[in-house]
Amino acid sequence: MSADSPRSQSCTCIAPINIAVIKYWGKSDEDQIIPLNDSISLTLDTDYMYTKTTATISTELTKDSIILNNEEASGDGVRFQNCLSEIRKLAASSKHASTVEKSKLKVAIVSQNNFPTKAGLASSASGYACLVFTLAQLFELESHKSELSALARRGSGSACRSLSGGFVQWFHESQPCVARPIAEAEHWPQLRCLVAVVSNTSKAVGSTEGMSRSVKTSKLLEYRIKHVVRDRVEEMKMAILQKDFVKFAELTMQDSNQFHAICLDTYPPLFYMNSTSQAIIQLVHRYNEIRQNIKVAYTFDAGPNAVLFMEEAELNRFASVFHAFFGSIPHESFFRGKIPDPVDSTKDVEALGPDKALKGQVQYTIVCHVGQGPKNIDPTG
Ligand code: DP6
Predict the structure, then answer these.
(1) What residue stretches are annotated with the Diphosphomevalonate decarboxylase-like N-terminal domain (predicted)?
(2) What is the structure's pLDDT at 75?
């Protein structure tokens, strides 16, 4: 560091989570994290869920360190080190002497998710996106925006999609392998998302291990890659660009179902959904039946939590039905984020046929919309 630069410098940023509507499942290169297929995701707003990361560089630090959710994590984790060394390489090749100097210093990372990771909400995507974005701000690499997605990918594949806001596609054949927005967050302002946190006691196989097992053993995954997913990505892109909710919803549900079918086709099989997840799927299909149109869609990642999509006009009605079925706490505690207005759901619940056994099976639900990418929250940022 030059004599006139500070001995220590920090930067704090936040990054969003993203939910895939066309799933990434399977790698062609495990070390580089290159996926077998393109995927499409929606970046969720950071009003309620985000990762916040502070990165500090200092001449006084003697080693890299990372504190995750108040616990010291291993700073020599392969993926953390991969991200760090890639970003240092980028900084070392900079035209700016100050960036080159900063790249030589050790860093201290403090990262916190403001949502409970124990609830099984994906944290690696927002976590690695935030790490890379914060370091890029600190090293003044903002102009390298397109490369940052590739750097986050080395931490966790899905993280490369959290560097952009809005509707995002991750291109498996692009060089470098990155994600880019299909449409901005403002493109479809009516779209709403409910993240339902399902009670969960069992520990599932992690995504990395799970997808590696699927690549080795699932014929259905092979079929998906060869015959299904390419066309589905194009159809999904069109549905998003045309704001065609019915098409968007059908493709989202079909792709989630195919992903979980692949999990069952994996040997030994992977069980990510539980009986509550299945009850949510059934409720959504029955609800769409009584509404005589597709008004709500579900998707599930590698866990039992449901992510439900609908347009704003349907939100209050569906949310009240959902609460009547699955909630055992008051409406205003069951929903977090922007709380939907409660409406009388008696007729809908009668038509759907109430099921008392489901009460309390969803702990709470976070209401969100499509949002922006990471941002620097330093007062001077
Ligand atoms: C089911 O990105 O967590 O959420 O690249 O091995 O870190 P690694 O896996 P990860 O996998 C996410 C899988 C998924 C689908 C998706 O987000 O596309």
Answers:
(1) 15-173
(2) 62
Q: What is the pLDDT of residue 138?
A: 95
Please work out whether the CB of residue 82 comes within 6 Å of at least one atom of ligand 1.
no
Residue 348 has a pLDDT of 97
Alpha-carbon gap, residue 308 to 281, rounded angstroms: 10
Choosing from 24, 273, 277 the residue with most ligand 1 atoms within 8 A of its CB, the one to mutate for a pocket test is 24
Which numbered atom of ligand 1 lies nearest the CA of 33? 5
State the pLDDT at residue 4. Answer: 44
Query: Is the minimum distance from the CB of 302 to ligand 1 under 6 angstroms?
Result: yes
Spatial distance between the Cα atoms of 341 and 324, rounded to a whole number of angstroms = 14
Fold (topology level) of 8-187: Ribosomal Protein S5; domain 2 (3.30.230)
The reported pLDDT for the residue numbered 142 is 80
pLDDT value at position 118?
66
Q: What is the DSSP string of 252-307?
A: HHHHHHHHHHHHHHSSS------HHHHHHHHHHHHHHHHTTS--EEEEE-SSS-EE
CA 100 – ligand 1 centroid, Å: 33
Given the structure tokens 């920090």, which residue do they identify? 10
Q: Is the CB of 24 under 6 A from ligand 1?
A: yes
Q: What is the assigned CATH class of domain 191-369?
A: alpha beta
pLDDT at 77: 80
pLDDT for 29 equals 98
Which segments within the chain are labelled E, that is strand? 8-15, 18-22, 27-29, 34-35, 39-43, 51-58, 65-68, 71-73, 106-113, 167-170, 179-183, 191-198, 296-300, 306-311, 335-337, 362-369, 375-376
Q: Which atom of ligand 1 is nearest to the CA of 302?
A: 1
In the chain, domain spans:
8-187, 191-369
Instruction: Give pLDDT < 70 ranges for the chain.
Output: 1-6, 74-76, 118-120, 122, 199-202, 381
Q: Is 371 exposed, middle or buried (0-12, 13-18, 19+ CB in 10 A)?
A: buried
What proportions of the chain, in percent to the nearest 5, are helix, strand and coil?
A: 40, 25, 35
